[in-house]
Specification:
Blueprint (H helix, E strand, L loop, with lengths): L5 E10 L4 E9 L3 E9 L15 H20 L4 E6 L1 H5 L3 H10 L5 E2 L2 H15 L5 E6 L4 E7 L2 E8 L12 H12 L3 H5 L4 E5 L1 H13 L17 H18 L11 H15 L3 E4 L4 H8 L3 H4 L3 H13 L6 H8 L8 H12 L12 H11 L7 H14 L8 H4 L4 H21 L4 H5 L1 E5 L2 E6 L9 H13 L3 E6 L1
Parallel strand pairs: 1-4, 4-5, 6-9, 9-10, 12-13
Antiparallel strand pairs: 1-2, 2-3, 6-7, 7-8, 11-12
């Protein structure tokens, strides 16, 4: 299903133990686009002293950031601004004083409990990866939230004070193991990930993914839905020590604020893997903030596919004549009956994006379309899915020369052929119809024996010009068929 509920701009201010952040969202409610994203590493959790209080300097820096965020939200005419505070403010002895200072400037942060934070983070993962099953782990500066997920619902949750700021430097592995054993304690969470998935949320976990991808020369630098091999963790820990802060920033593109916390994050992840025994480890770009947005959606809207909702929104914005994607997919689908549900979903996403580069220079339309497919802010799709969509759009927009071989290496030969078929079918449809609906509704494209038969109304015979015939022939050849046109 495809979401269509437009909303925004709406903003969320997240007051965490490490950072204070404002994110403003717009576009489609089911798969929101980020209009603005800014953080300040105030380190409220890092400043907790022996008396358990946040120090004045950290609070002043956080309050300055919040004042700016409130002003920016007003300039952007944000319709709804939601502010939440998590572990540092929750645990600090002077947390009430900080909340009072926030209220004086017109902000009223909701102080989330550990369980509420875990639930919201898990809903963020469900929003982005609807099929998620296992355990969500959201690592922050002050705490680690755990939540079981399955069939779109959140199960048991737990919150433990073992964020990257609280486990020592170097990290105390025995302390981490003790705290995690207490959090799991033989309950549902202890069994939820065994043989299933472990889904990682939070900047420190994403930094591990960045190091993993950069050091392995992964062709797509997109952390969302990146799979981590647990066997790589010792190697990644060694890389952190060998590379040092400067190279981690320059080669792995990890921010200077995150670099010091990598050893702690790797140690915590290592213990999670040891205790939970997951089959897979997957990074989620969406977490608490996206979970809060998802929580507000009607149940029917939650059921919509996030990838298709986002592709529909982008296709509407960039296409010449509005939403043609679903009709385009219906027109080419009879050629690809062997596509299972997974590939059919990616084919529909490709069709929804099938007109996104028309206004680029003709020599660069394919490049523009591929760039958006590979690097767009999509969820609900992994690197292989991005590559499949990108390869199809490369052909659809007349790409000349070789598709990026490093990206192509993510796909099997069968999938490369399938993507080319989708692309050539889209290219034929767009040339025949000029990107409009009427002709596609009146015509059909079918396999009939060894023939690829295009049927058109007799009154529309002039539409089958040389350019259309050429693309018809090219598609037929790609499918190992002969082209035929029939008028009725």
């Amino acid at each position: 299903m495809i979401g269509s509920l437009a909303f925004g701009p709406v903003g969320i201010i997240d007051i965490g133990s490490n950072s204070v952040r404002l994110v403003v969202y717009g576009g489609n409610a089911r798969s929101p686009s980020i209009l603005f994203n800014e953080k300040v590493m105030a380190g409220l959790g890092r400043s907790l002293g022996a008396d358990g209080a946040m120090d004045e300097e950290a609070m002043a820096e956080a309050l300055d950031a919040l004042a700016r965020f409130r002003a920016i939200a007003r300039l952007m005419k944000v319709k709804r601004l939601r502010t939440v505070a998590t572990a540092a403010v929750r645990d600090a002895s002077n947390g009430d004083d900080f909340l009072y200072a926030c209220a004086k400037m017109g902000l009223k942060p909701a102080l989330l409990s550990g369980e509420e934070e875990a639930t919201a983070s898990a809903l963020g993962v469900i929003s982005a990866i609807p099929w998620a099953k296992g355990v969500v782990a959201d690592l922050g500066g002050g705490s680690l939230e755990l939540a079981g997920v399955a069939r779109g619902h959140v199960g048991a949750v737990s919150s433990e004070p073992i964020g990257v700021l609280r486990v020592g430097d170097p990290p105390d592995v025995a302390l981490i193991a003790e705290k995690l054993a207490h959090a799991l304690d033989g309950g549902q969470l202890a069994r939820a990930a065994k043989g299933e998935g472990l889904y990682l949320v939070g900047g420190s976990f994403r930094a591990i993914a960045q190091l993993d991808m950069r050091s392995a020369h992964h062709p797509l630098p997109i952390a969302h839905q990146h799979r981590l091999d647990p066997a790589r963790l010792p190697e990644l820990a060694a890389l952190v020590e060998a590379w040092g802060p400067e190279r981690l920033r320059s080669d792995a593109l990890i921010s200077s604020q995150r670099v010091p916390h990598l050893p702690a994050a790797i140690a915590i992840l290592g213990e999670l893997v040891r205790l939970l025994e997951p089959k897979t480890i997957t990074i989620s770009a969406d977490g608490l903030r996206e979970g809060l947005l998802y929580q507000d959606l009607p149940e029917a809207e939650r059921a919509h596919d996030p990838l298709l909702a986002a592709a529909l929104e982008v296709g509407r914005q960039l296409g010449r004549f509005g939403d043609l994607g679903a009709l385009l997919d219906q027109w080419i689908a009879p050629l690809f009956t062997e596509d299972g549900p997974h590939k059919a979903r990616l084919r529909l996403a490709t069709c929804l994006l099938g007109d996104i580069a028309w206004n680029a220079h003709p020599d660069y339309r394919a490049e523009r379309a591929v760039d958006l497919a590979l690097h767009g802010n999509w969820v609900g799709v992994d690197a292989k899915g991005r590559a499949l969509i990108g390869r199809a759009l490369f052909t659809a927009f007349g790409g000349n020369g070789d598709f990026d071989p490093k990206v192509a290496a993510l796909l099997s030969e069968k999938n490369l052929v399938r993507a080319e078929g989708w692309g050539r079918a889209i290219r034929l449809a767009m040339r025949l119809s000029g990107g409009t609906e009427k002709v596609l509704r009146q015509s059909s494209l079918r396999r009939e024996g060894e023939m690829l038969v295009l049927r058109l109304p007799e009154a529309q015979y002039r539409l089958y010009g040389q350019a259309v015939q050429k693309r018809h022939d090219q598609l037929a050849a790609a499918l190992s068929l002969q082209s035929s046109v029939r008028f009725a």
